[in-house]
Amino acid sequence: MPVSPSRSVAFEILLRVVERDSYASELLHSNLCSRLSVKDRALVTELVMGVLRWQSLIDIAIAESSSLPLGKIDHEVLVALRLAVFQLAWLTRVPISAAINESVELVKQARKRSASAFANAVLRRISRLRDDLKPTLPIRTRDPRTLAALSAHPLWLVERWVSRYGPDVAGKICNYDQSIPVTNVRLRDASAEDALDSEGVSLAPGEFVANARRIVAGNITQTKAFEHKRVVIQDEASQLVAAIVGSGSRFLDCCAAPGGKAWSIADRNPSAEIIAVELHAHRARLLKERVVAQNVHIINGDVSKLTFEAPFDRVLVDAPCSGTGTLARNPEIKWRLREHDLADLPQRQVSILKSASEQVALGGTIVYSTCSLENEEGEDVIQKVFSEDTRFRTVNLDDQLCQLTNSGELILKDTRLLVSGPFLRTIPGIHQSDGFFVAAFQRIA
Q1: HEC-encoded secondary structure of the chain
Q2: Which CATH superfamily does the domain covering 235-443 fall into?
Q3: For the chain, where do the domains classified as CATH 1.10.940.10 start and end?
Q4: 253, 231 in Cβ contact below 8 A?
Q5: How far apart, in Å, are the Cα atoms of 141 and each of 44, 55, 146, 331, 432?
Q6: What angle, rounded to 10 degrees, do the helices at 55-65 and 116-127 form?
């Protein structure tokens, strides 16, 4: 039997995530999906993200119904099984026969025909238990082990969050990660909202940025406003970081891809010079394709090895990190990340931040941000870089948020909901956005 285009593409994306450590969010916007209908694209996204969000629970069901341990099952077969189990338990509108038969066909098409009978048998067993596999959201428990198991998160990560934020907040983070996140957009011109409304896209105000909107209904990617770059899909916490960077005449964005913050800074400072540096060539190419701003100059290189004509009055270091604040959008991260990574990643972050601090002009400001919920990548990095560097003083972000609110750029009623000491944190589930840590320092000597 033929396999539907949406299931074929979902299978290919999930296989690349497993075998190449690819990111699903990038593949969902790649040429793999370019020929699909809007309806099929939506199903691919639902399948891919659903499998990755609930992978541990899906794998338990497979393991309990299989004669082979998971580690002995070929990747192609395991991915096909995961796709079927997600449909059986989470997409009950899909007929059982379609979920099973198409996944068995995927096994055959992957040249694993000898495993087709095995796959069929496993899925038949699981289909009889489908009503018991899917947990009900929100998951309410204060026990880390139960929370980790039911919300499909690694126990070590949940235990960290319980220790750092308390069991109630940890529960909100996990529930947010397992839900379809809000899609935020940034309006690039005031009339874009009316244009979107005329094309059937309903918007609601954002949580803290004046130009941010939440999509309530409609497909924004099919609109003229989106095609003409009048509106940009960008998480609201990311928009907030760009607002904190502020105004100036010369900017350096040290780790610029995928480009949302550089583009936002450019729109806020249309006459400024903005240098956007990206280490990886393929991400630099994507950056050039995405950012349509004449004042952004993109460089593919290592910021620590580049020389510049003059220092910058604004420097942004949105450092590579674990991404634990983005698991709702990038669920595969939680299955790749290991606790020892949180000892290795900060070394790179410290190196980048120290190098970037040398590019700040006297009186200028450097902003450090990560989309991580972990202290090692936030407060600890700041301590290592600036605790003994008397050239810089801490910028109290509570004061800066108040200034941005007074100027109309933010719509915050209470800035204390975002600040942690002099720094800023957004937390998924507490805020309707990704989790970010932000700190700022001004050069005074």
Answers
A1: CCCCHHHHHHHHHHHHHHHHCCCHHHHCCCHHHCCCCHHHHHHHHHHHHHHHHCHHHHHHHHHHHCCCCHHHCCHHHHHHHHHHHHHHHHCCCCCHHHHHHHHHHHHHHCCCHHHHHHHHHHHHHHHCCHHHCCCCCCCCCCCHHHHHHHCCCCHHHHHHHHHHHCHHHHHHHHHHHCCCCCCEEEECCCCHHHHHHHCCCEEEECCCECCEEEEEECCHHHCHHHHCCCEEECCHHHHHHHHHHCCCCEEEECCCCCCHHHHHHHHHCCCCEEEEEECCHHHHHHHHHHCCCCCEEEEECCHHHCCCCCCEEEEEEECCCCCHHHCCCCCCHHHHCCCCHHHHHHHHHHHHHHHHHCCEEEEEEEEEEECCCCHHHCHHHHHHHHCCCCCEEEECHHHHHHHHHHCCCECCCCHHHCEECCEEEECECCECCCCEEEEEEEECC
A2: Vaccinia Virus protein VP39 (3.40.50.150)
A3: 5-132
A4: no
A5: 32, 20, 7, 21, 21
A6: 110
**pLDDT (tens digit per residue) in 291-317:** 989 999 999 999 989 989 999 999 999
Give the model confidence (pLDDT) of 130-183 as tens digits: 888 999 999 999 999 999 999 999 999 999 999 999 999 999 999 999 999 999
Cα dist. 256→300, 306, 403 in Å?
Answer: 10, 15, 26
CATH topology of domain 184-232: Alpha-Beta Plaits (3.30.70)
Distance between CA atoms of 404 and 436, rounded to whole angstroms? 18
Phi-psi region of 214 (alpha: psi -120 to 50; beta: other; left: phi over 0): beta
pLDDT of residue 1: 67
Instruction: Give CA–CA dist 348/317, Å, rounded.
Output: 12
Tell whether domain 5-132 is in CATH 1.25.40.10. Answer: no
CATH 3.40.50.150 maps onto the chain at 235-443
